[in-house]
Write a structure and sequence with these properties.
Length: about 250
C-alpha cells in the first residue's frame, strides 16, 4: 500500500513538473514557429486556439514549435509530428481591419492553418464531375467572381458551388485539386441568399488558411479576405526557413 502511494506521488510530481515546463515554454516566445515544407511561419501565440491535452502532447513531443526540443521523444509518434494536422487559430476581428471588425461584430475569426493543404478526398471526384458537367452538374457554368478573385463552378441541378483560383486547362483531377479554393452551399439555387462558403487561401508554397463564412459575413468577403492576407503575410520568417526541405504531401484531417 505504501509503495503504491509513493509511486502515485512520484507520478503526480512528474506531471506537475512537466506542466510547469510547458507553462514556461508558453512564456518563452510570443509566437509559435510552425514549419511548412521549407518555410517557417511565426504565428502569434495569442491567436493559437491550442488548449487541451493534444496541445500539451505536441509540446512534450517537440512538434509544437520548431525552436523547442521535445521532452518525451516517444510522444512524437502519438502526437503525429510528421503529419499535417491543422493548427486551429482565432484571428482577432480588430486585426482584420475596421470593415471586417464590424461584420464580425468584434468576434474573432476561426481559421485553420494547414502546413500542406490538400482538398478533402470526397471533394476532388465531385469537382471532376462538376467540371465535366456530369450528372447533377449538367449545364454547369464557370463564372469569374472578380471581387472574390475566384472562379465559381455552379449548375442549376445542385446547391453546391466549387471555387477555383483560376480557369482549368486540362480538367484532370490533379490540376483541379491544385486549383481548389473551397466550396459553397446555397439553399436558393437561383441566388446567393443564405449562402455558406468554406474558403481556402494559399499563403505560401505549401501552407494555406481555411475559414468559413456564413450568410451574414459573405457580403463582406472581400475586406475579410484582404484582412486575412494582411495578417498572414507577416508570419513567414526567412531566417528560420530551410531551402530544399520536402513538403508534406497529405493532410490528416480531424
Amino acid at each position: 500500500m505504501r509503495r503504491a502511494l509513493l509511486i502515485w506521488c512520484a507520478f503526480g510530481a512528474s506531471v506537475i513538473g512537466l506542466k510547469a515546463y510547458l507553462d514556461r515554454t508558453v512564456l518563452k516566445y510570443p509566437d509559435v514557429a510552425v514549419r511548412a515544407g521549407s518555410e517557417v511561419y511565426l504565428i502569434p501565440r495569442r491567436m493559437v486556439d491550442g488548449d487541451g491535452w493534444r496541445a500539451d502532447l505536441m509540446r512534450l513531443a517537440g512538434c509544437w514549435d520548431v525552436r523547442e526540443a521535445g521532452v518525451i521523444s516517444a510522444a512524437s509518434h502519438m502526437a503525429n509530428c510528421n503529419g499535417t494536422r491543422a493548427l486551429p487559430l482565432k484571428i482577432p476581428a480588430k486585426d482584420l481591419g475596421p470593415d471586417a471588425e464590424i461584420t464580425l461584430q468584434q468576434k474573432p475569426l476561426p481559421v485553420l492553418f494547414w502546413r500542406a493543404y490538400a482538398p478533402p478526398d470526397d471533394h476532388v471526384p465531385q469537382l471532376v464531375d462538376a467540371w465535366a458537367g456530369r450528372g447533377s452538374w449538367a449545364g454547369r457554368k464557370l463564372i469569374l467572381r472578380a471581387d472574390w478573385q475566384l472562379f465559381r463552378i455552379e449548375a442549376p441541378g445542385t446547391p453546391w458551388v466549387y471555387l477555383l483560383t483560376r480557369e482549368p486547362e486540362t480538367g484532370k483531377a490533379e490540376e483541379l485539386a491544385s486549383l481548389y479554393a473551397g466550396r459553397c452551399y446555397r439553399p436558393e439555387q437561383m441566388s446567393d441568399i443564405g449562402i455558406n462558403c468554406d474558403f481556402v487561401l494559399p499563403i505560401g508554397a505549401n501552407a494555406a488558411i481555411e475559414y468559413s463564412l456564413g450568410p451574414d459575413e459573405i457580403v463582406s468577403m472581400v475586406p475579410l479576405r484582404e484582412g486575412v492576407v494582411s495578417v498572414t503575410s507577416s508570419w513567414r520568417n526567412p531566417a528560420l526557413s530551410r531551402p530544399g526541405a520536402p513538403a508534406v504531401a497529405q493532410n490528416y484531417r480531424r
